[in-house]
Design goal:
By secondary structure, the protein is of the alpha/beta class. The protein is 28% helix and 25% strand. It is globular.
């Protein structure tokens, strides 16, 4: 049996890029024609011309943080859906609330690929502890398991003793859910003297899998890998047995952009994960997840050839309240763009006595009093607040994706 889900996973980079870019104009055109939000947002763009990453980068980013307002203006999906409400398969509500559609079709969320990489094969019983109530997590992993021919025990969340008993009685091959809950179940089974030895693999999501937790689960007999998925997009990237970064899904385009902007960052630089989906029902074009990550160099040792992400590295929405005023990352980027010599800018907020203080740190070859004065003026003009300026050598500021760092 193949160690790969399908032939897409081992394509050459050129072959993959050619296929994605060939499909991109049609998806942009589909979104414009059938999703009212994108019809309005992309009205000034020729879909046929969006056939490269450079062209894609000219389109505006729609951010998840804006979805609540967008959907409230046009309930329930803000006009981002291309399939009419009455023709969908399911609908969900995530905190916010944000409403998420699900269309008809096999493995609509594309989770099967992540489960396969975690070692699940036809006939393996999946103990699924993602929630089935309101949010799509439970259904996402259930439909992915069904695509592999795996039966599912819809365990949901809570009821730890019953979970442990079910593991002992049903002898599932593996688990899906949060890693912390898996540890709770296995420890409860051990405490109750119940056999949990069948549960040897897991595909987890929803929270950070830190090394101590991964090791604790390994000590309990379970090999764990991660999936990076959202209720809007389905699968974005997944961990393989190599456990070296997250391999991007084959049916999306991922960009890393500078927080608060539409602009892709240099390779390896930390920024916001922005995804373009080829889903016909919910054709999200340049959808900003709000998550920070970076592209890893090279190819995974597992043999999969797609680009890899370093994993979750924080949140891109760094909006901060200073002296009663909200300051947004895009404002700091707007200031920096007024000075062509600046390669990176970060606003550091701290306290001087009882007062908030702003320090604009910039990387620049040029540094003089006149430029410092101009930067202060620009900062006050854009943010309506006064701040200090610090110059740093190019490449010396941390590559952490932070445009605003609140140290208060």
């Amino acid at each position: 049996m193949s160690e790969f889900y399908d032939a897409k996973e081992t394509r050459s980079a050129d072959e993959r890029e050619a296929a994605l870019m060939a499909a991109l104009p049609g998806q942009v055109g589909h979104a414009k024609a059938n999703a009212p939000y994108f019809g309005k947002l992309l009205a000034g763009f020729d879909a046929a011309a969006i056939n490269s990453r450079a062209a894609l980068a000219q389109l505006p980013v729609t951010r998840k943080s804006d979805l609540i307002d967008i959907q409230q203006e046009n309930t329930p999906f803000g006009g981002l859906n291309a399939t009419a409400n009455g023709k969908l398969f399911r609908v969900f509500a995530s905190p916010g609330p944000i409403y998420d559609p699900e269309g008809k079709g096999r493995d609509w969320w594309r989770i099967g690929r992540a489960l396969y990489a975690a070692g699940f094969r036809e006939g393996d019983l999946l103990h699924n502890c993602f929630a089935y109530h309101f949010t799509p997590g439970g259904i996402m992993f259930e439909t992915g398991a069904h695509a592999l021919g795996c039966p599912v025990f819809p365990a949901g969340v809570g009821n730890t003793e019953q979970q442990a008993r079910a593991v002992a009685d049903l002898k599932p091959a593996g688990y899906s859910g949060t890693p912390s809950f898996l540890k709770i179940i296995l420890e409860k089974a051990r405490e109750m003297g119940l056999d949990h030895s069948s549960l040897t693999k897991a595909c987890v999501s929803g929270e950070a899998l830190l090394p101590p937790l991964r090791q604790a689960l390994a000590d309990l007999g379970c090999d764990v890998v991660q999936a990076y998925a959202t209720a809007d997009l389905g699968l974005i990237a997944y961990e393989t047995q190599a456990k070296q970064g997250l391999v991007v899904d084959e049916d999306i385009i991922v960009e890393i952009v500078r927080p608060g902007t539409n602009d892709p960052v240099a390779p390896g630089e930390v920024g916001e994960v922005v995804v373009t989906s080829f889903n016909p029902d919910y054709p999200l074009i340049r959808f900003g997840t709000g998550d920070l990550s970076a592209v890893m160099e090279g190819q995974s040792p597992c043999g999969r050839t797609n680009m890899r992400l370093k994993g979750w590295m924080g949140r891109a929405d760094q909006t901060t309240k200073i002296k009663g005023m909200f300051v947004h990352p895009r404002q700091i980027n707007d200031v920096a763009k007024r000075f062509p010599g600046i390669t990176r800018a970060k606003l550091v907020v701290d306290k001087l006595g009882d007062n908030d203080r702003m320090i604009l740190q910039v990387e620049s070859e040029q540094s003089n009093d006149a430029m410092a004065t101009s930067l202060k003026d620009a900062l006050q003009s854009v943010c309506k607040l006064k701040g200090e300026v610090e110059f740093h050598a190019p490449g010396s500021l941390p590559n952490d994706g932070k445009v605003i760092e609140d140290k208060r």
